[in-house]
Amino acid sequence: MRDKKPLGLQLFECVRSSPISFRSCQAVVLVLTFLSYASYHATRKTTSIVKSVLDPKTNLGLLHWPSHLYLQNLKGTENNMTLSSGWAPFNAEDGTALLGEIDLAFLGVYAIGMFFAGHLGDRVDLRILLTIGMIGTGLFTAAFGAGYWFDIHNFYYFLGMQMMAGLFQSSGWPSVVAVVGSWFGKSKRGLIMGIWNAHTSVGNISGSLIAAAMLKYGWCWSFAVPGIMIALVGLTVFLLLPVGPDVIGIQEDLHLKDSEKADMDTPLLERRSEGKDKAVGFIEAWRIPGVAPFALCLFFCKLVAYTFLYWLPFYISHTAIGGQYLSDSSAGVLSTLFDVGGVVGGILAGHISDHLDARALTAASFTFCTIPALFFYRIYGSISLTWNIALMFVTGMLVNGPYALITTAVSADLGTHSSLNGNSRALATVTAIIDGTGSIGAAVGPLLTGYISSRSWSAVFTMLMASALVAGLLLTRLVVAEVAAKMEARRTPDHAHAAASDLPVSSMGEP
């Protein structure tokens, strides 16, 4: 059998002497998938917090934008920093570049593994795949920290641990999106998934706080504790997560009204006959209208988002804010405000895209607005702590808005595209293609930052602004199509509802 009822649910039903309801299963799915991916991001965030401990050198850069743009004179404070000795080999002259290579190793393997995980996810029990991914991630995350206990200073050891962690993490996103897609209908998909996608920022925030709090006991604990946590959540997933209504024999909740069933309980795709429900091939999924432009757009969106994910605490701790430098722990805590903004951005982008029935227009608008936000954060973020907090929040909101929208609602839209003729075995593959392509950008951004930041942080921000511009331009054709469809719908009111219901799918055209 492809999927089996979890042992924990079997025990629960045995104790209750009655089957679990549809709504209860939906609640279990939401909570467990939320905790699952939050724990993935908690382990992923750890490296960015520990960077400044592994490589404590001042890295302000020399090639800034014109000096008259700065309202603070940083020269007097640079020599007041108290630096620790760091951890070999990352405390050498090329330590920043080595940390960039560590990020590349993780994200590169993660991106490649994503394509295979999505292909596999449409063919095996997602609960087992997710469990293995989470326990494996926890094991190799903790093993990275074990380098402290065993006094390991071999770069290739840390490189190997990150590569293995990236491989196991690649199973997470296709699995959780496919599971949620099996349980929840299309109504208000952008808003619902925008709220649910807060797990990314919640994971980043919790990972930052845990890693920062553990630094005083040794940086090893900043890896070990999140590793143990994700392994425990993985065991809970194995015991309780139902991957779809058919797994536990639930078709509908008889206590719900017919209107509620139609709106809330209709899965993203109806189950079809076995012959028609074959998993979609990799090349076939790429050919689905809209997959390629959104995947390429996400490449640049994640390049920006993951540069902040991996380097923001480091940047904060090595930049004078109000004339003073923050400690590594304080910088890690402050960086969480970027993710708080990300939560708001994801929900806002989802709500707006639902209201406008225009995913591409919403995503493009956010990416274009990211450009001035990045500029102002770089120039004015050092004025004071208040300015830094406000600008970081706005930047996080604009950076993560389109990222969250594309990886959730857009992926679900494309994974249920009309060209699939009702096939329910494409969602994990499409999700993996889009997020896998984006993850290549997520690998490139931190790597380039590792090299560029040693010369100029202003050059890093220029790179990020250029990436946001390209991300928005890649959606130009889809935006034009959406706007044209809206204008056509207004001219022909009788077809307005049909046009709206087809967006954004209708705006993507047929190949």
Automatic annotation (TrEMBL):
Recorded topology in the membrane: Multi-pass membrane protein
Key words of the record: Membrane, Sugar transport, Transmembrane, Transmembrane helix, Transport
Localization, UniProt: Membrane
Name of the protein in question: Major facilitator superfamily (MFS) profile domain-containing protein
Entry's Gene Ontology BP terms: phosphate ion homeostasis
InterPro entries assigned to the protein according to its UniProt record, in alphabetical order: MFS, MFS_dom, MFS_trans_sf, Sugar_P_transporter
Pfam family, one: MFS_1
GO CC field: membrane
Major localisation: membrane
Family statement: Belongs to the major facilitator superfamily. Organophosphate:Pi antiporter (OPA) (TC 2.A.1.4) family.
Residues covered by the Major facilitator superfamily (MFS) profile domain: 31-484
Organism of derivation: Urochloa decumbens
Transmembrane segments: 20-40, 97-116, 128-150, 156-184, 196-215, 221-241, 291-311, 331-349, 361-380, 386-406, 427-452, 458-480
